[in-house]
UniProtKB/TrEMBL annotation:
The keyword Nucleotide-binding is assigned to this record: yes
Domain of life, source organism: Eukaryota
InterPro entries per the UniProt record, alphabetical: G_SEPTIN_dom (IPR030379), P-loop_NTPase (IPR027417), Septin (IPR016491)
Keywords annotated in UniProt: GTP-binding, Nucleotide-binding
Record-linked Gene3D superfamilies: P-loop containing nucleotide triphosphate hydrolases
Region (Disordered): 270-298
Recorded GO MF terms: GTP binding
One matching Pfam family: Septin
Protein name: Septin spn3
Length: 356
């Protein structure tokens, strides 16, 4: 899901991420026409992407939220987005309750929300704080600065610093690329620490291909120079794309299912039992949510250890079976050797008797 006020670059980012036109700019990024339709509109679209030269494909559903942030009072927009996220959980809960499951059932849960922050050069606005706090109990929230090329390097660095200070101050439990120094390998710790250090990600998108040094690259042309989308010195686009589609895809899905969905499921079942109506504040303690990744990592490690034990036992069984087979073969070979020796001895005796 991509969410943010009109003009923050959501549409261009999605099209750049997918390498083709998936969203129409007039629906998402045209601030001049934002007044035509009031309220947020939830617009999911599914695309097939080829991730590498080997032909690995992924079915990616993009959920756009045009109209968010265009009103003075955005309470209804908050409700629309939270409602959409919860309906996907309700569909899973209903399917799990069926005696006979639907083999064609499609899981439409949203695994990550990219929240596009307006590039003001300052910290978070009240709207940003409220939106991320409302949605974080239902989805992994990753903050990004849209159209980051509108800021100077110094302004961008200061803005990132202020935004992360606000996130910490208001205890907003964003997805922070969790790692455990004691449990995770060195490469994982280094990669996640680097990604965490880039937050909020500075996003630059472009629908244009510009030739630079004989190569066509996605970039934005300005009178003062060129901003390359995939140049790490100009944008964090490569880092966020790799995290979303490769390195952290499984982790985002696991947290969604094992923690966010299970928390919602518990709330829902508790409500159905006691008839209570939980409030948004009762859904999750921010401190609990902040430690979700560590607990999930521990659970994941436990499952991996169990798998390793199963593999070890299987290997031991196979080794024992192979040893038995080898012993049987050795026994057969000894019998053959003994028989051949007896036959050779008998032949020698027959020859000797013949000579006599």
């Amino acid at each position: 899901m991509v969410c943010g006020a009109s003009g923050t670059g959501r549409t261009t980012f999605v099209n750049t991420l997918c390498g083709k036109k998936v969203l129409e700019g007039k629906d998402a990024d045209d601030a001049a026409n934002a007044h035509i339709e009031e309220g947020v509109r939830i617009k999911p679209v599914t695309v097939e992407l080829e991730l590498d030269d080997e032909g690995t494909r992924i079915s990616l559903t993009i959920v756009d939220t045009p109209g968010f942030g265009d009103q003075i009072d955005n309470e209804a927009s908050f409700g629309e987005i939270v409602g959409y996220l919860e309906r996907q959980y309700d569909d899973i809960l209903a399917e799990e309750s069926r005696i006979k499951r639907n083999p064609r059932f499609r899981d439409n849960r949203v695994h990550v929300l990219l929240y596009f922050i307006t590039p003001t050069g300052h910290g978070l606005r009240e709207l940003d704080i409220e939106l991320m706090k409302r949605l974080s109990p239902r989805v992994n929230v990753i903050p990004v600065i849209g159209k980051a090329d509108s800021l100077t390097p110094a302004e961008l660095a200061e803005s990132k610093k202020l935004i992360m200070e606000d996130i910490e101050h208001y205890r907003i439990p964003v997805y922070n690329f969790p790692y455990d120094i004691e449990e995770d390998d060195e490469d994982t710790v280094e990669e996640n620490a680097e990604l965490r250090g880039l937050m909020p990600f500075a996003i630059v998108g472009s629908d244009e291909l510009i030739e630079i040094d004989g190569k066509k690259v996605r970039a934005r042309q300005y009178p003062w120079g060129v901003v390359e989308v995939e140049n790490p010195r100009h944008s964090d686009f490569l880092a966020i794309r790799s995290a979303l589609l490769h390195s952290h895809l499984a982790d985002l899905k696991e947290i969604t299912h094992d923690f966010l969905y299970e928390n919602y499921r518990t709330e829902k079942l508790s409500k159905s039992v006691d008839g209570a109506t939980p409030t948004q504040d009762s859904s999750m303690n921010p401190e609990d949510l902040a430690s979700q990744s560590v607990r999930l990592k521990e659970e994941q490690l436990r499952r991996e250890e169990e798998k390793l034990r199963e593999i070890e036992l299987k290997v031991q069984r196979e080794i024992a079976e192979k040893r038995q087979e080898l012993l049987a073969r050795e026994s057969q070979l000894r019998e053959i050797e003994a028989r051949m020796a007896r036959e050779a001895s008998q032949s020698q005796v027959d020859v000797t008797n013949g000579d006599a």
